Amino acid sequence: MGGAGDGLVSLLGLDFDSTVVRTQRVALDSQARSGPAGHLLGDLLLSSGPPAAVVPFIPGLGVDGHAFVHGLRAALPPSTPTIGGMAADGNRFGQTFTILGNQVYTDQAVAVGLYGPDLRVGTGSASGWTSFGPTRTVTEASGPVLSMLDRKPALRLYCDYLGEKASELPSSGLLYPLALVGQSDSARTGLIRSVMAVDWDAGTLTLAGALEPGSLVRLMHADNQRLIDGARLAAEQVRETSGAGAAVLLISCVGRRNVLGDDIDDEIEAVRAVFPAGTPIAGFYSYGEIGPHGDDSLSELHNQSMTIASFCEIPLEN
């Protein structure tokens, strides 16, 4: 991976001795269908046996990524490493695509299932974003559509924070995501949710994943060095469980690229420096990253993260 670029195709080829590769796809064209679609995709992957790892890619617009991931997770064995992302369209938010074989789709979730006892997968995810401002309570939300914060129209409150940048929504929303924070400790940040769309008439924000009424949120911001440090931390998490000769897949958020600007390659170099020289590295920018979260390493939908996976084979000893 030489660096970030537009209008380019980044390919990562994996050649396994014993690991079996299977692909599946399901229709995914609405928020309401997201959870069932994830579960169905998991069921299809299980038809070839319990996978050693799953790599899903899903449409980036008009879907509930959080519900999809939880549906997929519910169908798979709990210990299955699952890492992937939502397709992106840069700052345009027009249309996204997934690809399987020689077909290009706008409404299909696709996944690669990897099967076999010799596969070793390392995973890591970190952000580098910092929460700020008052803690707000989600008082009305339906799936990923956020209507009210502290019983006030969510879009109006959000625009008050953004000031002049509000006219650039939804793309400017990538610079100020929402952090889910702890009920007892508002400084403790959990998952991050990016703004994907706005409805000016209804006064609502559509996020990349669902928020439950009663959840606590704060705005977030970042600077370049914190994002680069976050990318390095994710790589170090992967290195702890990565085998020799592994290939590495990076999934970074479009919002991180907007913040880093001309320094975008520094994030990639920070990751590259963690792995041995010559490690194959490729990746893409997403509207949502699917990867481990918390001590139990169960996969969740992330936003504004650098999420990384490594793949290699280490034959089991007889």
From TrEMBL:
Residues 4-153 form the FIST domain. Residues 154-293 form the FIST C-domain domain. Pfam families: FIST (PF08495), FIST_C (PF10442). This is Histidine kinase. It comes from Skermanella aerolata.
